[in-house]
Amino acid sequence: MSKNKEPRPRRTFTPELKQQIVDLYRGGKRKCDIIREYDIANSLLDKWIAQADNSGSFKEKDNRSTEDAELIRLRKENQQLKMENDILKQAALILGRK
Questions:
Q1: Per-residue pLDDT of the chain (98 residues; tens, 9 = 90+)
Q2: Residue 4: HSE in the Cβ half-sphere, 13 Å Cα cutoff
Q3: How many Cβ atoms are within 10 Å of 29's Cβ, its own excluded?
Q4: Cα(97)–Cα(36) distance, integer angstroms
Q5: What is the distance between the alpha carbons of residues 9 and 13, in angstroms, rounded to a whole number?
């Protein structure tokens, strides 16, 4: 029988700590040692390294591709247009009753 483990509480890492960990890797420390020492996932370390290489920032906003940024902008615009359309429909219904 497998026991259900409690999910690990979500941890947050400061940009300074992320940079220190990336610097350790760049300084020659092995990934497996860093992962074990800081108890982080391999994919998380890979993500931080890629972010540091791409933009030097660990903020998701700074690491978006132009396509991702445009998609987010278009989704917001679409939502705004839907809201405006709903308002106009309601106004047409109200004015149609008079």
A1: 556 678 878 888 999 999 999 999 999 999 999 999 999 999 999 999 988 887 777 777 777 788 988 999 999 999 999 999 999 999 998 888 86
A2: 2
A3: 13
A4: 70
A5: 13
The span from the first CA to the last CA of the chain, in angstroms, equals 70
- Output the pTM of the full model: 0.58
Write out the residue range of the structural domain in which residue 28 sits. Answer: 15-97
Q: Residues with Cβ < 8 Å from 42, sequence gap 6 or more?
A: 31, 35
Tokens 């497996």 sit at which residue? Answer: 32
2 found inside a domain: no
Q: How far apart are CA 78 and CA 73, in angstroms?
A: 9
